[in-house]
Amino acid sequence: MSQPFLPFALPEIGDEEIAEVVDTLKSGWVTTGPKAKRFEQAFTEFLGDPSLESIAVNSATAGLHLALEALGIGPGDEVITTTHTFTATAEVVRYLGADVKLVDIDPATLNIDPQAVEAAITPRTRCIMPVHYAGLAADMPALLAIARKHGLKVVEDAAHALPTTVGGRLVGTLQSDATVFSFYANKTITTGEGGMLVTRDPELAKRAKVMRLHGMNRDAFDRFTAKVPSWYYEIVAPGFKYNLTDIAAALGLQQLKRAHAFQRKRAELAARYDEALSGLPLVLPPQPAEGDVHSWHLYVVRLADGAAVSRDVFIEKLFAAGIGCSVHYIPLHQHPYWRDRYGLSPEQFPRSQHAYERMVSLPLYTRMTGADVERVAAAAREALRG
Ligand SMILES: *Cc1c(COP(=O)(O)O)cnc(C)c1O
Question: Is the beta carbon of 88 within 6 A of some atom in ligand 1?
Fold first, then answer.
């Protein structure tokens, strides 16, 4: 009998999450309110630095948009990011009418290459957006040094990076201007859809909170609970609708409590993959620096040069064996919009292109067992026979 399909990703939602959501549903307050506030406080506590402010939003995309907006990025400005990311990282720059400068990756880590960043700086450059690819921290000491030297802002796309450390410090607590986490369904913790904007800049926080809710100077919960008449507010800007609901925040409150345990489980499964796949014609994922934490959002292997099958055939064979895989990412320079907008070609990004043509993300999530990993490894071994 064939085994059941092993999906590429699955969230882990327990009884505590369900009870917390039910509590919210019964409370009479379902949109942004007490639980969103508690989730923000819990997030700052999780990061362990009370000088940070955590601002809950309905997606990481929204958080990235708010961060850049609050930094005043606009027409005429350039923002540098990696071509090897999801389009959300770059699209928010275009929302604001600014331009995206895509750069290549470091082939060892698949993260943005600081040297390529420095080479791409022009008089119009305002900001660098590193992505902690797969949950392995980008070279933040180098990137922050470049930003300081050239007077640039730094907004980290930390959609993969909860929890991830650099030099022993959690991503979110570094000296960048803002860091944005994602709680999309397949991320390391989930609220269905959701995100968190973290900053130590009080002005940025103030602007982001106003723009998160229509450019209103008082949110609905504040008006509902305040001791002054609740109907009055002022619109100070044409803002957005980016607030996180209490239903989602209820999920987040319980998921956050499990973030470290989830990371340990993912790291165990990744180590088991490393062992089970060793000796095959695969480039295994890079490891974090000694003492650092990799969130292991993704487990990305690359077919070695000279492997008996192509990446596409490898994925088909795993699918035929009942195993879901994915590719992170089709680099932005290959997508029609980015390619045509900026006249990009693969030759400009040889390392990202090389990695893309060979890469496969294998299933990795907390509900997997060691036996699931062995099954994937066995199917990979079989597929690589050609
Ligand atoms: C998931 C993801 C995003 C967007 O997150 P949402 O919460 O879905 O908006 C942004 N950047 C990267 C690298 C991602 O993987």
Answer: yes
